[in-house]
Amino acid sequence: MQFGVISIFPEMYQALTDFGVTGRAVDKGLVSVDVWNPRDFTIDKYQTVDDRPYGGGPGMLMKVEPLKYAIEAAKAKLGSQSKVVYLSPQGETLTQDKAQQLAQEASLIFLAGRYEGIDERLIETQIDEEISIGDYVLSGGELASMVVMDSVIRLVPEVLGHDMSAVEDSFVDGLLDCPHYTRPEEHEGRKVPDVLLSGNHEKIRQWRLKQALGRTWEKRPDLLAKRDLSKEEDALLQEYKRDVQG
Ligand SMILES: NC(=O)c1ccc(N[C@@H]2CC[C@@H](O)C2)nc1
């Protein structure tokens, strides 16, 4: 899968390309990340990418043309059909389902804005989708684009490897994660639940599913409301509720 990014701070993307799961995916050639800097598409001596807003108001806006030319350069490499995504609080909120959708694309181009934003006409003519990573304002779209890219890259086949992707499937489908433990078996008097030491994989699967259902019920009932429960899941959740009510 190919990713293109438009940003005046290309070096920021080393956070994604140089570390961890996403870094290894790039090293293995499973994904590519190319960054185009709008400053390289300016024609004035000062490489101006911003200007004052019509109508007055604080701050500066990003000019249309450097962004347009940078997007065109990205499309020349990644394909003219590449979906162009703009990160802003006005966008559709990112969910795991949205990440799954984006992961079906062969290539994606992200536009990371700075200053007070970009000229509306760029959005009207060049942007296919607006995405928000949450209801808060950031100083730039770069971190938001890396959050989206990370959530998508881990869904690309082979990135997580077969065993991990199975783990993803069992929990990502709309439930919160269950508790996890590793050595030592006891820490400050707190023992690892016996079931996890039992070697009984069916019991362990049921315990983990029950904990995921219970946690989702306690912390995110809105997620539970959106999810149909199997008979087994319903029974496990009822058991969890009885356990906590004593
Ligand atoms: N919640 C978000 O996803 C988000 C995205 C971008 C952003 N800030 C940029 C800076 C200027 C304009 O391009 C938008 N803030 C918040």
From TrEMBL:
<keyword id="KW-0819">tRNA processing</keyword>
<comment type="function">
    <text>Specifically methylates guanosine-37 in various tRNAs.</text>
</comment>
<dbReference type="GO" id="GO:0052906">
    <property type="term" value="F:tRNA (guanine(37)-N1)-methyltransferase activity"/>
</dbReference>
<dbReference type="GO" id="GO:0002939">
    <property type="term" value="P:tRNA N1-guanine methylation"/>
</dbReference>
<protein>
    <recommendedName>
        <fullName>tRNA (guanine-N(1)-)-methyltransferase</fullName>
        <ecNumber>2.1.1.228</ecNumber>
    </recommendedName>
</protein>
<dbReference type="InterPro" id="IPR029028">
    <property type="entry name" value="Alpha/beta_knot_MTases"/>
</dbReference>
<dbReference type="InterPro" id="IPR023148">
    <property type="entry name" value="tRNA_m1G_MeTrfase_C_sf"/>
</dbReference>
<dbReference type="InterPro" id="IPR002649">
    <property type="entry name" value="tRNA_m1G_MeTrfase_TrmD"/>
</dbReference>
<dbReference type="InterPro" id="IPR029026">
    <property type="entry name" value="tRNA_m1G_MTases_N"/>
</dbReference>
<feature type="domain" description="tRNA methyltransferase TRMD/TRM10-type">
    <location>
        <begin position="1"/>
        <end position="225"/>
    </location>
</feature>
<keyword id="KW-0949">S-adenosyl-L-methionine</keyword>
<feature type="binding site">
    <location>
        <begin position="133"/>
        <end position="138"/>
    </location>
    <ligand>
        <name>S-adenosyl-L-methionine</name>
    </ligand>
</feature>
<comment type="similarity">
    <text>Belongs to the RNA methyltransferase TrmD family.</text>
</comment>
<dbReference type="Pfam" id="PF01746">
    <property type="entry name" value="tRNA_m1G_MT"/>
</dbReference>
<dbReference type="GO" id="GO:0005829">
    <property type="term" value="C:cytosol"/>
</dbReference>
<dbReference type="InterPro" id="IPR016009">
    <property type="entry name" value="tRNA_MeTrfase_TRMD/TRM10"/>
</dbReference>
<keyword id="KW-0808">Transferase</keyword>
<keyword id="KW-0963">Cytoplasm</keyword>
<comment type="subunit">
    <text>Homodimer.</text>
</comment>
<keyword id="KW-0489">Methyltransferase</keyword>
<feature type="binding site">
    <location>
        <position position="113"/>
    </location>
    <ligand>
        <name>S-adenosyl-L-methionine</name>
    </ligand>
</feature>
